[in-house]
Structure formats: C-alpha cells, structure tokens
Amino acid sequence: MSLQRLNAKSFEEIVYDQGSPCLVIFSRKTCHVCKEVVPILEEMQPDYEGKFGFYYVDVEDEQALYQRFSLKGVPQILFFKDGEFQGKLVGAVDEEKVSDKIMEVGEG
C-alpha cells in the first residue's frame, strides 16, 4: 500500500483542518535513504489504519511546503496532532523508532 501523496492544499486540509494524528514524510525520488524509509512506513501503515495517518510529500514537487518547515535534507518524518507539530525523525529510521514516536504523539 503506497502512502497518500500530499500537495500544499491537501496538506492544509488533512493536517490542519482535520487535525487527525498523522505523520508526513518529506522525501525525494532520488534519495537513497528515502528509498529505505518509505517502504518501512508503507509496511506499518495498515496497522494504524483509521487511527494514525501516513502521508508523503515529494520535496521536488512541493518546494514551498518543504521550505515552510525550514527542513534541511531528507528524509524527514514530521508528526502532527490536532493541527500542531509534535516533532520529527530525521534520516534513516527503523520501525521501532517510528512506532515509539506514534505512541508518544498518540493514536487518537
């Protein structure tokens, strides 16, 4: 299952307007580390269906969104709940790190 891709408009709607707990990975097609991290998230996603959202932003297509968060490098996984930034994970991460952060943010 692939992650739902967000653009600036859908990011606003899902992260801020709906305010559901979620993570958004900022990634680039040519990034080798991203190619390792994205499949981990895709594998985890079904376990959190309906409780925690998993989304994807391509930084090459959505540069303004990437710059808005003053991000440096990819991959970066940003966590949100109730429309508020809850923290991030940077670089190569494993399933345990991601699930720990999801538990910290709260599944809903």
Automatic annotation (TrEMBL):
SUPFAM superfamilies: Thioredoxin-like (SSF52833). The keyword Ubl conjugation does not apply. GO terms for cellular component: cytoplasm. Residues 1-107 form the Thioredoxin domain. The keyword DNA repair does not apply. GO terms for molecular function: protein-disulfide reductase activity. Coiled coil: none annotated. Gene3D superfamilies: Glutaredoxin. Keywords: Redox-active center. InterPro entries: Thioredoxin-like_sf, Thioredoxin_domain. Belongs to the thioredoxin family. This is Thioredoxin domain-containing protein. It comes from Desulfitobacterium hafniense (strain Y51).
